[in-house]
Each structure stands twice: as structure tokens, then as C-alpha cells.
Give the backbone structure.
Amino acid sequence: MVESSTGAGAKVAWPASPEAIRAGKVRLRAWVKQRRAGLSPDFRAYAASAVLGNVERWPRFQEAGCVMAFASLLGEVDTMPILARILALGKRLVLPRVSPSRAYLEIYEVRILEHDLARQGKLGILEPLPTRCRRAEHVTIDLVLMPGLVFDARGGRIGYGAGYFDRFLATLCPMPELLAVAFDFQVLSRIPQFPEDVPMHGFATEAGLFRVRRKEWTCPSVGDTHAAARELDALVPADAVDWAVRPLGAGQDRVDARFCSTCERQANWPAPVTRC
């Protein structure tokens, strides 16, 4: 078990209690939202263009026949250029819509951005129009571009707290590759995670494309052993447990993230999972 400062003067041991994990997530969400709100329009335009270029370099994006993406909220990296590029390349594009009961995500195939989307709810989120778009219930998704507020180099993700994407991803089999789209400052060295949080395969930011390395190991639940490790472009402290604002930096040690390739769950760190 490793101890590290949270940046608030307190020490947090890893693995931490559920209460500490929840508190850490709340604090990081608030920090990211505040910093994101201060970004200039010029930087946002630059980031949108750079992220698009990096998404296009992701190998699974190049191979994908069907990509699930998201229409960005105010403050997020603008994903409209990405959505337009997916369609321009002749790929199938599916986007999520919160169900009428607000309990889960429904996905629809979008063909014409200008006609198939409308702003819904208090936040004005662009969502597919059921009257114009076809439900994509039986579509095989090759890649999911993931939204979120905070990420880490082990693949960890903190969303907005509603759990829509985690519940949706749990229904997919096989699990597609998950590529997070974010500003570079949103990717930290280590963030609080529950065992059931679904990890990312990589991140596309304005600064580059980052892959989570996978180390060969055996999942005790299914007895599945990984074959190949994915290289991690980002460098992080090997014992980093800092949930405060510590972005990735150069000259630091490489780390590995542990996944089960059958259920795609990330192992508790440093102890192995007991079940998927």
C-alpha cells in the first residue's frame, strides 16, 4: 500500500475507502470544470483541430467501420469536426441519447449532422432525433470516443457522475476500444477509481495520442492471460497516488495498467482483482 499527498495537506492510502474515492472524484470534477471554463476561444479552436488529427491517427479509428462518438457539451473539446470527419470517411456514426426515463443511453445512427441532431434538456445537449435516426441496437461498434472530466495514464476515467456510459458499456460484448477525447490538462497521473469503473484504452488530446500499456497477467475470474502489451506514450510516476492536480510530465517512470481482455475491467492497483 502506497501513501501520497493529495495536495490538500492530507495523506491518502491506496487502496482508499469508498468515501475517499467519492470525495476525490468530486474535488477533481470541480477543478477541471473551473479550469476548463477559463480556456480562450482561440485555444479551443486549436485544440479541436489538433484532437481531430490525433483521433485520425488512432489505428482502430482508421480500421473502424462503425464509430460511437458524442456531441460535446459546452466546455468540452469541440467534437463536431470529428463527427463530420467520421461521416466524410464513409464510416457509420452512432451517437447516444438519454432514454425518456433518464435511466440509460440509447444509441442511434446519424447520417446528416445538420438534420439529425437537436438540443435536448436543460444543458442543451445535441442528441439524435428518434424521428429521423434509426436505433442502432444490433450494430457492432468498433471504437467508442469517450467523454469525461478527468483521466489518468492507467486508463482511469471520471465522468459527470450519472454513470450512463459505464452502464451502457457493460452491455457491449465484445468490448470495443475506448478512446477518450479531452484537453491535455484533464489527463493526470493517478485518479481515484472504483473496481467497476470502465478503463480507457487511450486518450486523444491536443498534445498527442496516448496509449495505455497492457501487461501480461491472468484474470482470476476467467483465467485469461494477455499476450501483447500496448505501449504507453505518457510517462507517469510509478508510485503516483496523487489525486490533486499533477499532470503527466517528462523524465518519469513508465507504468503498466492491468486489464482482463475478456471483461475489460482494470485490476485494483497494486493488488489483483478477485473477480471481474
Notes: The first helix runs from residue 18 to 37.
